[in-house]
Please model this.
Amino acid sequence: MKVLFIGGTGNISMSVSKLAVEQGIDLYHLNRQKTAKPLPGVKTIQADITKPEECANALKDHTWDVVVNWIAFVENDIRRDFKLFNGKTKQYIFISSASAYQKPLAHPVVTESTPLKNPYWQYSRDKIACEDLLNYYYRNDDFPATFVRPSHTYDTIIPVPIGGSKEYTTIDRMKKGKKIIVHGDGTTLWTLTHSEDFAKGVVGLIGDRHAIGHSFHITSDEILTWDQIHHIIADAAGGEASIVHIPADLLAAYDENLRGQLTGDKSASVMFDNSKIKQFVPGFTATIPFSEGIKRTLDWFHQDPARQIIKEETNAWIDMVIERYEKVYPGNKL
Model:
C-alpha cells in the first residue's frame, strides 16, 4: 500500500510513521527541509506544501492509496489538497481535533455524533470549517475523506497547558519545589493519550474503504483529574506538585492565548466513547497508562539538554499571577 504523509515527524505523527513502516506500508513523507534526516524506511519527496505549484510538479508522477495530512489547519489547505489529490488517492485522511466538539458540552460523554461547535478557540473553529469543506467535497465530488480527531496526545511534549508543551518550565518548577498553576479547582476530568496508542487506531484506518465519509476520535480510556495529572508528572520527575488553583477565566484575562486552550478545551470534563474506532479497528485498545507514558516523555527530554527549554518569561508570568491571586485568596496551595 502506497501512502503519503504530509507532515509525519511531529509529536503525534512520528509514532504513526514508525508503526506504518513496521507494518509494511510503502510510506512517503512530503518534506520541504533539505537537511531533515529521513526516518528509516520512509521515502522523502522534496516539496513545500504551502507552494501548490511546486507540490503539483513534485507529485505529478504519483498516485496514492492513502494521503494523510497532519498539517492542514484552514480551509485553503483543504482547497489546495483537493486540487492536488482529487482523482489521485483512494483515501484522504484529515487530522482534525477533538477540541472541535461542542463547548460547553451538553453531555460529558463524547461520541462522534457530538456536535462540532467551539465559540472560544479559533483553532477549533478552523478545524470545523475544514471538516465542513471536506464533507462538501465528499458529498458532491466523491472525494474519499476520512476524519480523525485526536484529543490531548503526547510523546515529545509535556501535556500541561501552563509551562508545558515544548517547554520544560513546569517540570523545572516541580523539581525545585516551586508553586505551579492548575486551572479551575483541579477536579476537571481529562484524557491523555500516548502517541503510540493513537498510532494503532490511525494505521488501522489507513486503506479501510469502509472508513471513508466517517469521523473518528482515538483516545485512551483512562480518565484523570488535572490534579492527578500534575501529581503523576511530579512523581515521574522526582519533584513536587505544589498546586495553586486559579480559575481559567482569570488566567485567560492575564493571557488571552489561554482562552481557547482552557475555556475552549481543557476546562471541560470530557469522557470519550471509543466504541466506533474499536468497531472499525478490531482489537484497538490504548495500553499505555499516563504514569508510564510520561516517564517515556521525560526520558526523551533528558536525552538532550537542548530539549529542556526553561523560559524565564514563563516563570515570571507564573510567579506574577500566583502572587496577585494569593493576595486576594491566601492559603490556596494544596
User: Anything to note?
Assistant: The longest strand covers residues 26-31. The chain has two domains: 2-153+194-218, 156-191+223-268+289-328.
